[in-house]
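Chain A, query sequence.
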Amino acid sequence: SHMSLAYGAMARQCPSVGGEAEWPRWQNRDLAPIPGIENESLSEDSSSEGSSTSSDPHSSRSNAAKKRVRKWRLKFAVKKRLRRELMHPRQHQLHGAPRKRRNFLVVPKLLSAEEIRLLHELWRHPSVEEIKDRKKTLQYRHVAYRMELPLRAHGRELYMKLIDTMAWADAFLWQKLPRNEFAYPEVEYIVYEAKGGIPGSIEPHVDNHSAVTIVILLSDPSEFTGGVNCFASPDSEDLPARLVSLNCGDAVLFRG
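Chain A, predicted structure.
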């Protein structure tokens, strides 16, 4: 079971952070040890070298030769964590529906300005890579980067806060996570940028392999237009969709 965290950086330009954070420099290659992550939290995975453009999120590499690369995949021990009390947000807004799967939660001010700054800095870690794993049939216009490993390695307190928030939401609404011994968190730092007057977007879809998804806005809404999250009507496809606009630091959590 997957747990997906998508951080929506929706400003017109990628966030800039002054100075360079002094974390160990490492790459997720050939199962080399990752500072700050114990082996029991890692699982071996393999992927196509051509599925990402570069180990540097601010440069590009074209026509990469596709070859299989042994990499680490982050692993989360679900049942072990659920034996202890979960951290949970101070406030939340429930958007209910007759069908349990269509319930979702909005958590205002989940992240502080300092936590948002940390995410922007971790995005610049040399291990972060652009991902191109969207289905060919999915219509979207954005750039996404995978960063769960540097977040777990160098922002563990924030990582656990997000994982606990997701596990709490599942316990509150869906009760699906306890069926799994392990989950495999995937963190995406997503940039929606208007290029040539064409806004960033993604078509309606369902991530069927995700147990819980959390989306957090990392930009000030005054810096862009749009950025509305759309959810299906609670009880009829004929009724209008439910629209949710977030402020910087707010989160929305949903199934799939």
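Residues 207 and 224 are 26 Å apart (CA to CA). The chain is about 15% helix and 25% strand.
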